Amino acid sequence: MKTTKTDPTARTPHRAPHAATLATALATTLAASLYATPVAAQPATQPAAAPKTGIATATRAAPPEAAQAQAGSHAQAQASSAARGEARSAVTPTAAAPTDASALVERLQALYPSTRFGAIHPTVWPGVFEVAMGANLAYVDATGRYFLFGHLYDMSQQRDLTAERRDAMARIDFGSLPLADALTEVRGNGTRTLAIFSDPDCPYCRRLEAELRGLDDVTIHTFLMPLASLHPAAHGKAVSVWCATDRLATWQALMLRDALPPQADCPHPVDRNVALGEQLGINGTPTLIAGDGRVLAGAASRDQIEAWLSRPVAGDPSKEAGGGAR
Questions:
Q1: Closest CA to 174 of 308, 282, 311, 294
Q2: Cis, peptide link before residue 98, omega less than 30° from 0
Q3: Is 0.85 surpassed by the pTM of this model?
Q4: Cα within 13 Å of Cα(149), Cβ side
Q5: In sequence order, which residues have a C-beta less than 8 Å from that of residue 52 and are 6 or more positions away?
Q6: Where in the chain is the domain with CATH 3.40.30.10?
Q7: Of 211, 182, 213, which Cα lies nearest the Cα of 198?
Q8: Looking at the domain 174-310, which fold is it?
Q9: What phi, psi does 212 have (nearest 5°)?
Q10: Cα(274)–Cα(115) distance, rounded to whole angstroms?
Q11: Class of the domain covering 98-169
Q12: What is the pLDDT of residues 108-156, one digit of tens each?
């Protein structure tokens, strides 16, 4: 797999002017995908047949023209009433509308067969469900007709619930990481845990390394992940760092002072680390993984990392809503 280097933090100023446009385009694309295969139209309600008899008076029958007018008015009234009934049933959830996530996913798949839906959970907003479509989230009512594309906020607690859920969806199982293949440094009490995939020739990785010097009470596991397609000499430097007598000191000297490590070779995990990064979907360096599995890509500042490590992790939205997905 070809690996590319990204630095979302460095590109943030260029993205900001277009954030609203991108958000609108994303919502439009997602909404359009729902209707890639139109739902079959329902048969129109047929007007009621006109009465066979005219309206008579005590002295004589009504003229044929009057009888036809009366019959037409009666049929139009019935058709109008039926149309109003259909309109009400179309916008009002009925007793048959799904009330749990498992029933709703079946309904959505039937309504929008060209769209693949993932997990569905009730939210803290009564009657509104969160639905995953790939890496994107949307919100839908119980009928499956109304969708909301955007972010759901808890204004009382000043929380972006959508961003928290996206973090949770992208989490990596930290316990499955082969920590023996990483450089490990414990600072202070080491209670906070952090893994970093880093390239010795990546300028953003070096910037991150300088920011990390301000962190305390943290255990940092650094996986050497050279991007050979961008930095041909990085693989040899990573191997030399691993084969050094003091790996951690050699790594920090290289990243902070550009002190080249003595060339060396030995059994090493560098190739395994590259394969692991690709398997985890890590396509750029630096990439940070918190102990709870949340992912942060790019050369973040110390303050940003502190805030990110301290951010509460979103739990199951069904539990927040007081119910469970079934």
A1: 294
A2: no
A3: no
A4: 17
A5: none
A6: 174-310
A7: 182
A8: Glutaredoxin (3.40.30)
A9: -65, -20
A10: 33
A11: alpha beta
A12: 999 999 888 888 989 999 999 999 887 788 999 999 999 999 999 999 9
